[in-house]
Amino acid sequence: MKLFWKTTLVIIFMILAVNCKTKEANTNVNLSLNTDVTTKLKTQINKEIEKEFDSKFLSRGELVIKKKEVLIFDFNEDDLLDGVAFLSFFSATDKSFKRSIIMYYKNDGKQLILKDKIKKDYCVFPEKDAIKNIQFEAAPKIYTSQVKPNELGLIDESLKQESIISLADDKLIYGEVISSDHYDVNSSHKVEQENYYKYTSAANGLIYRDKPDGKVLGKFPYGKEVHVVGKTGLKKTIYDQGKEVEGEWVEVALDEYSEKKAFIFDGYLKEIHELDRQRLIKVAPVVFEKNRKKGLILPGTYKVFNQKLKHTSDITVDGISEVYVVKKTKYKRPLLSNQKYCEWANYVEVILAREHFILFGKNIISISSTEEVKLSETKKVALVLGENYTMEASDEDGLTGCDDYSDIFLKTGNRYEVLYHKPEKVGDKLVAKVFVHDEGMSERISEIKVEDNTILLRIAQGFQEGTGSYKMKIFKQDKWYCTETDHKREY
Question: Does any domain span residue 3?
Fold first, then answer.
């Protein structure tokens, strides 16, 4: 009997120990806006603040922290709670404002790490609904207010201006929002019916209100298409960073599927071609559009992304494989920060081996043509042309000097192979043959023949200043090779 109770107690203690360890482990991974987790994170950040600043400023009694606020939310969209701390320092003697410091703490799943810190010469603090307002933007942002000190160094609420904080590559980005022009507006203003579309051009977002100069309802991101449904005739002028911006209050539809409307200042509405394209793409929401095409994926290891283009895993492809392209992003985007525009590509969703993957489109080929060639009574080969999703990076908005070409593959049965120049090499690497359709030049197959298991092509060329042609032989050795002869040019 004693042995039974001893055994039972040991099992109970073991269960309790496992539960305690599980709870302890779970405190490291913060996946939800749980009140307990938020409180713990705020406490941790406050301790870090005391360590960082007590010894430097506060211990000497020269400065005091008059404003302190900590926001806890998933800032970099990785399903972990991060922290942003706002501190405003004032003189302990004359109460004048000295500086604001904003600190970003990243949650790596185990601990909070101070990743970035910015200093401002004016008082910066989050608005009451700073985090709720994030829903109006393409990516998480914090709406803040900045108040510049007056000549005496005291905070003057009449000098208050809206500002915004965003995150890029673990760095805080601070920007001022256009200032409002607070004149009196008759509440019984008339709205004249209109019907046209334009795009927002305010760099940090364009505020929309319930009436001209009324209550702020939200903010449209840069490049947002808006449907203007009415004009008020209420003119205004804004001085934005020393520049005069003129316009009027217009009424816009908030939702094409409802009757909700709001008012915006049209001095920051432009045609699509007037916008900064690269800024537009970087701040625009990730939008996919249908692109149902047969394609190929080249060998290599690929990063796999989710719908928000966050890296989630990796896959390895051993040989050139067939894929089916389901959709692609509306705009080409970079894979790496500071990547040259000509290296941007559409992100594409493909079906590979019956699974869906979202991949950067540089080595995904969209098949544009397939030409079957009969080498003998028993042997056939297909000549396959296609373009990867970096192609025409320049041509969506005009010519910018990016390369534009078609890759060439030979398909035998279910096997695809690259066509190479012979004997051209770059170092030890073979050079793949491509058909150029770049600025001012194009190439296409104008004639196909077969002699002794060799494919004979005539290639027609187009230039800005004339036309040309050359002959090409395609043959199989250890790989598929080609040679070029008889180049001609006419002006």
Answer: no
Same domain? For 258 and 151 the reply is: no
Q: Which residues pair with 100 in a beta bridge?
A: 88, 120
Of 92, 90, 86, 89, the residue nearest 104 (C-alpha): 86
Which whole number is the average pLDDT over 172-179? 68
- Number of structural domains the chain divides into: 3
Averaged pLDDT, 35-61: 70
Is 411 within a domain? Answer: yes
**pLDDT tens track for 232-282:** 988 887 766 557 788 999 999 988 777 889 999 999 999 877 888 777 776
Q: Within this chain, do residues 121 and 258 fall inside the same structural domain, yes or no? A: no
Q: Is residue 461 part of a domain?
A: yes
- Distance of alpha carbon 323 from alpha carbon 264, whole angstroms: 45
% of the chain residues with pLDDT over 70: 80
Tokens of 355: 């699974």
> 423 preceded by cis ω (within 30°)?
yes
Instruction: State both tokens at 379.
Output: 């042997």
Task: Please state, in angstroms and rounded to a whole number, the distance separating the CA atoms of residues 108 and 28.
Answer: 9
Q: Which range of residues forms the domain containing residue 48?
A: 35-176
Question: pLDDT tens digits, residue range 402-457?
Answer: 778 999 999 999 999 999 998 887 888 899 999 988 767 889 999 999 998 999 99
Q: Measured between alpha carbons, how far is 246 from 236 in angstroms, rounded to an integer?
A: 6
Residue 397 located in a structural domain:
yes
Residue after which a domain boundary falls, among 176, 204, 221: 176
